[in-house]
Design goal:
Blueprint (H helix, E strand, L loop, with lengths): L9 H14 L8 H4 L5 E5 L11 H19 L3 E5 L1 E2 L3 H14 L4 H4 L1 H15 L2 H8 L10 E2 L3 H16 L3 E11 L4 E3 L4 E16 L5 H9 L5 E3 L5 E7 L10 E4 L13 E4 L4 E7 L11 E4 L5 H10 L26 H14 L3 E14 L7 E10 L2 H12 L4 E3 L3 H10 L4 E2 L1 E2 L9 E4 L5 E3 L15 E3 L3 E2 L2 H4 L2 H4 L8 H6 L4 E4 L4 H16 L6 E4 L3 E2 L16 H8 L1 H11 L6 E2 L5 H4 L1 H20 L15 H22 L3 H28 L5 H22 L4 H10 L27 H23 L8 E6 L2 H9 L1 H8 L1 E5 L9 E5 L6 E5 L6 H27 L1 H6 L2 H31 L1
Parallel strand pairs: 1-2, 3-4, 10-12, 16-24, 23-24, 25-26, 27-28
Antiparallel strand pairs: 5-6, 5-15, 7-9, 7-14, 8-9, 10-13, 11-12, 15-17, 18-22, 19-20, 19-21, 27-30, 29-30
The protein binds one RNA strand through strand 9, strand 13, helix 10, helix 13 and strand 26.
RNA sequence: GGUCGCUUAGCUCAGUCGGUAGAGCACCACGCUCACAUCGUGGGGGUCGCUGGUUCGAGUCCAGCAGCGACCACCA
């Protein structure tokens, strides 16, 4: 038997095992495994991390979960395909490279488009994919032969096909609308890419003077209580409007009131002098205006506000863009404001209005300011010509798939969130003014103006034959390639075996943050292009947070590097820790200031596994292992084998329900609590041959069987330490041995090994040992000192204790067991076993503190009397007896009877003490 | 503003069908008995956020309130 070191050294075992699994091709699943071997596929596609990303704990959690599921299904015999890859991450990656350039004092424009894109490619080739290497250190068993990248030729082809097809179907259109514009990234954003942040701002009130011709009407209206109409110091009349963004007033082309607002009815059509600009704008009527809010009068800036754009479209107001792409005031505004940043302009506009006596104060106002999800810059609504996907027709089937249960969510509450989003779906702005990404497959003929949308790059205009074609300069939203991931990675639109076999997939594991960005859209595209949902189960993980509940992030410096954890404590320790911490629907909290403490549970358990394995291997001794079925098994053998069956059943059930932490918990307690603490302790003498050869053989065979079983069950969560130990296990003669644990069959409970009687008797024995130990501690009897034990109970328990007499002596230091009632004159501590009806009596003459024991007894009697009283009251209650479930009533009766019996014994004991003291 | 979720031991969280509240960590005491001190044994610690309701009985079901959080949102 090989000597194992007393401490698990993950660094010594993990990398070689991973290399071997990889080399043996166990992660790779060819389509033939399904088509020829008839195996049932199980497919997970990885949420592709950004190609430039480095691993953080969120990935650690997410990918551990995926690997647990994949390894478990693989052991179940499924063709378990886990497809890895990365996302080109348009804005994020371009930003990274632009920052690099900035350090060299250059911009992307200095380089020009093609050289810039080449530079990004270089960067991606150099550093991209680091994260995938890091996943390997975590033990992720991805099918690396299929590693995909959203800019790969195949995936790019899928993107283009989808664009063209949607365009043909009329689901893609180009138009001039208000979109979310990031003035720093200089690109349009989708609604999902904008994050609202609650901000304490101000609501400024400003005045727009009315043309003199309307003063009389205005005065009249003011007298009738039109609060928005005020008189200026020069005697003229003005409208009062409110705004959170005063700088946009330079782009106002109207003022709107509700058509049925009696207060302002006379003013509809009136001319208003727009301050600072010398322009005259009209008052229009539009039902969007809420008469109840503020003064019931709204300034209209069609080119810089989505609502105003709508109002303008309905009322015919012209849009007027007053900002440059980087959010400075453009040449459309009066000279003094030109070139000012929008926030600078805000101050300047307010100051200018004040000078003209048109500033009317401000109020504190909390509102949601939209920010770019990539750079946090305040997003500017901007009128712009962009490409959009018409989402309504795509959303409908995706909604139905959730409603009819074709797709299910874990935790279930996300279903509602998903459906709510789809019910209120808005069109998707997919064009980005970036260079890094899939170029939009659209060309404009410079000759005749024709727009060409094509699968292949056109060389000439199909309408006029001109060769002067210019491709649309924009690229597509990164998510426009990610949403095709479940089929584009399997060669779609080409109809291959891979596609047929691995689509649709099964489980998607991801963070809730990208439910709309990615999950919902994948379901939409899957249904639309493949006719089937891409997966049927969506498992949304929690968020990894620090001890203060803050999200882990680079900028906060509160992150934990999973690789550091792997390096220090091993992948198994990290995996077990996160799995056991990831209760469904809850976030996981880790302390970045105490990485060791945070991962101690996993590390300790991995080490426990190692040591128990080490002990087992060392104490099995030489000689063949006999078959279990040929041996006469002891009580503890039957007990642990039975417990293993229950554990296998429960573990499987929990995994099926995505309750990974429960699975981890069951295995932890079975391994540590049952196997290591009890079984191993119980069989030590037997393994040494102290109880005879037959007994030794039974213990060896049982130990091997249980170890084999529990290592299999633990393998998905802790693949390395389990595989390392499993390889050292001797194998029963004649039994077929799988090639490796990673490909060993998943245990299914063997009913013939289930033994409730053994479980029950062991439970009594364990309790007896616990009671004796506890009493020893309580009375301060030295650990090493043996004690006599008197007990009485029924025949079954007696048999148990007799069978375990030796173990009792070792585990509880019991010197002698007497089956007789303690006579008068003997005093001791005692305990009553709850279920078993067995009483323990430790004669403790000379040790016991009689006063203390008496008090304790009295206390216990009082407590039990209380319980009994409550129980009897319940039983006396006619409603309870007639209405409660029969088994509950029966249980209550038994409990009461038991209590009464215990009480009688306690009183007897107390009487004994009285006599002695 | 709307929707959803959470509130149980010092901390992080379980708690299935309503029937005498659990785990891990932390803490205290004892123990280096040859698998493991990353360990073992024992122990202390909870008015289950508050109020009311349903029920024979509520951590669990219902209503209201408070606090926290998430998501959604075009009231300037």
């Amino acid at each position: 038997m090989r000597e194992l070191p007393p401490r698990l050294d993950p660094r010594a075992i993990e990398p070689p095992l991973y290399r071997e699994w990889l080399a043996r091709g166990w992660f790779h699943v060819p389509a033939s495994a399904v088509l020829e071997e008839g195996r049932d596929p199980y497919v997970i596609v990885i949420p592709p991390p950004n190609v430039t990303a480095v691993l953080h704990m969120g990935h650690g959690l997410n990918n551990t979960i995926q690997d647990v599921l994949i390894r478990w299904r693989r052991m179940q015999g499924r063709a378990a395909e886990w497809l890895p890859g990365t996302d080109h991450a348009g804005i994020a990656t371009q930003n990274v490279v632009e920052r690099q350039l900035a350090q060299e004092g250059r911009t992307r424009d200095d380089l020009g488009r093609d050289p810039f894109v080449e530079r990004v490619w270089e960067f991606v080739r150099e550093t991209g994919g680091t994260i995938l290497e890091q996943l390997k250190a975590m033990g992720c068993s991805c099918d690396w032969e299929r590693t995909a990248f959203t800019l790969d030729p195949g995936l790019s082809r899928a993107v283009r096909e989808v664009f063209v097809r949607l365009h043909e179907e009329g689901l893609i259109y180009r138009g001039e609308y208000i979109i979310n514009w990031c003035p720093r990234c200089l690109t349009a954003l989708s609604n999902e890419e904008v994050e609202a942040s609650e901000t304490e701002g101000r609501l400024w009130r400003i005045r727009y003077p009315l043309a003199e011709s309307t003063w009389r009407v205005a005065e009249h209206a003011a007298a009738r209580g039109a609060s928005a109409i005020v008189q200026l110091s020069n005697g003229g009349w003005a409208l009062s409007v409110s705004t959170t963004r005063p700088e946009t007033m330079l782009g106002d082309t109207g003022v709107a009131v509700h058509p049925e607002d009696e207060r302002y009815r006379g003013l509809i059509g009136a001319d208003v002098q727009l301050p600072l600009t010398g322009r005259t704008i009209p008052v229009v009527a539009d039902p969007f205006v809420d008469p109840e809010f503020g003064s019931g009068m709204v300034k209209v800036t069609p080119a810089h506000d989505p609502n105003d754009f709508e109002i303008a479209a309905r009322t015919g107001l012209p849009p007027m863009t007053v900002m440059t792409p980087d959010a400075r005031m453009n040449d459309a505004v009066p000279e003094p404001f030109r070139g000012m940043d929008r926030f600078e302009a805000r101050t300047a506009v307010l100051a200018a209005l004040e000078r003209e006596g048109l500033f009317a104060g401000s109020d504190a106002h909390t509102h949601a300011v939209p920010r770019c999800y990539r750079c946090d810059t305040v997003v500017e609504p901007r009128l712009s010509k962009q490409w959009f996907v018409r989402m309504g027709p795509l959303a409908e089937p995706a909604l139905a798939a959730s409603r009819d249960g074709t797709v299910s969510f874990t935790p279930e509450r996300w279903k509602k969130v998903y459906e709510h989003w789809l019910e209120n779906i808005r069109d998707w702005c997919i064009s980005r003014q970036l260079w890094w990404g899939h170029r939009i497959p659209v060309w404009y003929c410079q000759q005749c103006g024709e727009t060409i949308v094509a699968r292949e790059d056109p060389t000439s205009c199909p309408t006029c034959g001109s060769v002067a074609l210019e491709q649309d300069p924009d690229v597509l939203d990164t998510w426009f390639s990610s949403w095709l991931w479940p089929f584009s990675t399997f060669s779609w639109p080409e109809q291959t075996d891979d596609l047929r076999v691995f689509y649709p997939g099964h489980t998607l594991v991801t963070a809730p943050e990208i439910l709309f960005f990615w999950v919902a859209r994948m379901i939409m595209s899957g249904l639309h292009f493949m006719g089937e949902v891409p997966f049927t189960q969506v498992f949304l993980t929690g968020t990894v947070r620090d001890i203060q509940g803050r999200k882990m992030s680079k900028s906060l410096g509160n992150g934990i590097d999973p690789l550091e954890v792997v390096e220090r404590f091993g992948a198994d320790a990290m995996r077990f820790t996160v799995v056991s911490a990831c209760a469904v629907g809850t976030d996981i909290h880790l302390d970045h200031n105490d990485v060791e403490g945070s991962f101690a549970p996993g590390r300790n358990f991995a080490n426990k596994l190692w040591n128990a394995g080490r002990f087992t291997l060392m104490s099995l001794g030489e000689g063949p292992i006999q078959s279990l079925s040929d041996l006469r098994l002891a009580l503890e053998d039957r007990w642990i084998l039975s417990r293993l069956q229950g554990t296998a059943k429960e573990t499987t059930l929990e995994l099926e329900r995505f309750r990974l932490h429960e699975a981890a918990d069951r295995l932890y307690h079975f391994f540590w609590g049952d196997l290591a603490d009890w079984y191993v302790e119980l069989v030590k003498p037997r393994l040494k041959g102290e109880v005879g050869e037959t007994s030794r053989q039974a213990a060896r065979a049982t130990l091997i069987a249980v170890f084999d079983g529990v290592l299999r069950l633990l393998h998905p969560i802790m693949p390395f330490v389990t595989e390392a130990l499993w390889r050292e296990l001797p194998w029963p003669e004649g039994a077929e041995r799988p090639e490796a644990l990673i490909v060993a069959p998943w245990p299914t409970p063997d009913r013939s090994l289930c033994d409730p009687a053994a479980e029950s008797r062991m439970a009594d024995f364990q309790e007896l040992v616990g009671v004796v130990r506890s009493l020893r501690k309580e009375y301060g009897i030295a650990e090493g000192k043996g004690i006599p034990l008197a007990l009485w109970g029924d025949g079954d328990l007696r048999a148990t204790v007799e069978a375990q007499r030796g173990a009792l002596a070792r585990l509880a230091r019991v010197e002698e067991v007497r089956w007789e009632r303690a006579g008068a004159g003997t005093v001791g501590a005692h305990a009553v076993l709850k279920g078993g009806g067995m009483e323990v009596f430790l004669p403790l003459d000379g040790v016991i503190d009689v006063g203390r024991e008496r008090a304790r007894l009295q206390e216990e009697i009082a407590r039990k009397e209380g319980h009994l009283g409550a129980g009897q009251k319940r039983l006396a209650n006619e409603q309870f007896v007639t209405r409660a479930r029969p088994d509950v009533v029966e249980k209550e009766r038994e409990r009461a009877a038991g209590l009464a019996e215990e009480l009688a014994k306690l009183r007897e004991k107390l009487a004994l003490l009285e006599g002695w003291g």
